[in-house]
Design goal:
With about 110 residues, this protein is mostly helical. Helices cover about 75% and strands about 0% of the residues.
Length: about 110
Amino acid sequence: MRRQFLKWIASSFAFGAASALGGNRAFTSQLMAANTVDLKDTLEKDLYARTPEQFEFIETVVLLVANKILSPKLVYSTFKWSLQYDKGRRFYYFEAAMRKRAKQQGVEI
């Protein structure tokens, strides 16, 4: 989990640097696609998603991040907060917190 989080941080830094330096669009879109795949895998594995509804919720969150409706920082901070709870309950805490925090930003999940 920590390795994936650090990988995400590094790719985010690379994405930001490429954007700031005016890198080509294909490269930046490839980085964004890699970030969302890493995000999806991280959420599914570390939140112990098991039911189709849980996978669907994670897919929705990843899609909102990919479309820049929700910030990755918001999702990762909520994810990190939910890790303090028991393995079997992490997803439920993450889901409730994401719905609440997204609603505060005017996004209905």
